[in-house]
Amino acid sequence: MVLAAAVQLEAVLGDVSANLAACERLADEAGRAGAEIIALPEFFTTGIGFDESLATAALPPDGAATELLTALARRHRALVGGSFLCRDPDGHVRNAYLLAGPPGGVVGRHDKDLPTMWENAFYTTGDDDGALATADHTVGAAVCWELMRTQTVRRLRGRVDLMMTGSGWWSIPRWVPHRLFDRLERNNAGTARRAAASFAQYVGAPMVHAAHAGTLTCAMPWLPLTYRGHFEGATLIAGADGTVVAERRADEGEGIVLGEITLGRQPPRLDPPAGFWLHRRGTLPTAVWHYQRWHGRRWYRHHVVQAT
Questions:
Q1: Quick one: 306 exposed, middle or buried, by C-beta within 10 A (0-12, 13-18, 19+)?
Q2: What is the β-pairing status of strands 162-166 and 138-143?
Q3: pLDDT in tens, 230-239
Q4: Measured distance CA(114)–CA(280) in Å, rounded
């Protein structure tokens, strides 16, 4: 059995220094508790929302985010991973999940395959398989809505001994009519937790999932509206059979969750469906997925990508 930790972060949108400090404090708490695996959430340097500050908040591959991950791995002799907006030498930004391990080097990197909704405004796609080999095990890395897609299962199923994942999953706002949007949000929150909790059963490996909590206020792409909502949390640790051994709810706020897992591959308990999605998105998320993708790709070309 190995003690694992997942961090639940209340990020300050676009404030890299503040978020790095919070992640170090929380990861140190996990390390002092004896965790040998420490997962930070997606966008641990910036948080996520449609905010122009993120256009200039990407860090280089060898920058402060990587320095933090490697320092934590060395300090606590642990596997430490999380994703951040990473500007590569080609001028593009990617949502890069970096895994560091003792004695303090980078084990590997996974770039999220498809940006989700307004994320299209801040980074481009990735195409690696997400299987990162350490000296003793193979770790599968996946980020947020990658846990919603059958293609993620196909590239990792039966190949990894541990899943390290993170998310920045936001709520559906409470617009009018309240009864309708409240129902949509209940479904959205349920999907966020189900996607994280069930993924271990699709790949046959234990799961350490870090996430964001707290409120979010930002602009809405192409609409004269302000988004006001919150992050869904779903920070949890699950065994390869899908049993959730530890969890921190979103309403518990920032902190860590600790749980013991057994590393290694097991026969997957669930078969993925035949289509593209593991879980139903719902009508509103489907519509927002498309319109914000169209908007975001154009916004990214004009505001984020840099010529080399």
A1: exposed
A2: parallel
A3: 999 999 999 9
A4: 17
